[in-house]
Design goal:
By secondary structure, this protein is an alpha/beta fold. Helix 7 crosses helix 8 and helix 9 packs across helix 10. It is built from ten helices and 21 strands.
Amino acid sequence: MIQKDKMKNQNKALEMAKYAYQNVPLYYNYAEKLGKNIEQAVFEEIPVVDKSFFIEKGMSLLSTRYISKYLQGKLIYSRTSGSTGKCTEVFWEEQEEIKSMLSLWLYRKKYYGILPSDKLCYFYPADDGSLECFEEKNRLALSKMLIIEEKFDAIIEKIEVFQPIWLILQPGIACVLCEYIEKTKRKVPDSIRYVEFTGEYLEEPVRKKVIEVFRCKTANQYGSKEVNSIAYECPEGNLHIMEDNVFVEIQGEEEEGEICLTTLQNKAMPLVRFNNEDRGQILHHVNCPCGNRNAVLKLLAGRSNDWILREDGTKVHAYFFIQMIQKINLQMDGAILQFQIIQKDWKSFDFYLVIEDEQDKRDIADILLDKVLAAMGDDTEIQIQYYDKLLPEKKTGKLACFRNVMQL
């Protein structure tokens, strides 16, 4: 039965692959370059691609069947957060996006009693930098630019006034909020009964601290903007794959390896055999007491961010710098293709950038210098280095967007 379900999902993925290679310029040009006839291929013969395949590809990412909706402004558009140091545009058709999230909402209700109508608080990457927070229907969105210690009181006050039922938090943000709440003895709103982690690898000590501080249920939700929900944690602690939304496979010689994804819903910008640069293992024979028979994904490595350290002992979340890059990309039409930021000392930072256009390099250097000095002080030392490509670390297989290498 398990093998039959796996083949059924793989066949759906093969259908999406053939659709993509017929209708998306990026894919059919790639197949032509490789001399491959995808129409006659079995799934294992479809090429595996990574994020570099999509960087700065513009309209060639889109299916030709959705160009009209794109021109009419009817597609949902966003950029990935850049937590891996690579910036990618993402497009969704509204109904396909809703369908991709359906199972996640069903499991949120089944496992934790969370409904779409429940008041939610979350942090967002404020690309345009215009708002620190905004309310939309039953949601309170807080900018990640608020994740600096002098703003924590304002964050807690806004949450107290809003009285959310649940929170979506990156583990790094959850950790620093818990530290601040404990240090200041602030009262957590009694309304909060569930916290969902996403966006970074979840360490169990972080989960335990959140449960202790917020006195609520928690779950891990593994996903990405490109495909939305990939896997969701049940109350038994198993991360079940969303098999109606995405086909997940492991690339590697052993059972463990790199996670590859094929969307089953997003036909506007389909991802096919996409290596997302995380590592994991798929367990197919888990008789989970929760009743979910979908395969279980065991994450072995994920994204995590160091913290920007200040000489007075305070910490600033790495998104402080990430959003500077995002704002520049918004202003410069995605000119920064890859980036990494290294903190060498309290006031010393290296910026490694991949930028193709020479004029863009000069303009971006001026903008970046102004932004960093304004934020960190005029005595801050900044070095900008340009590369053709930034490669992940051999040990982790990741390209961390920010690293602190200070010798304390």
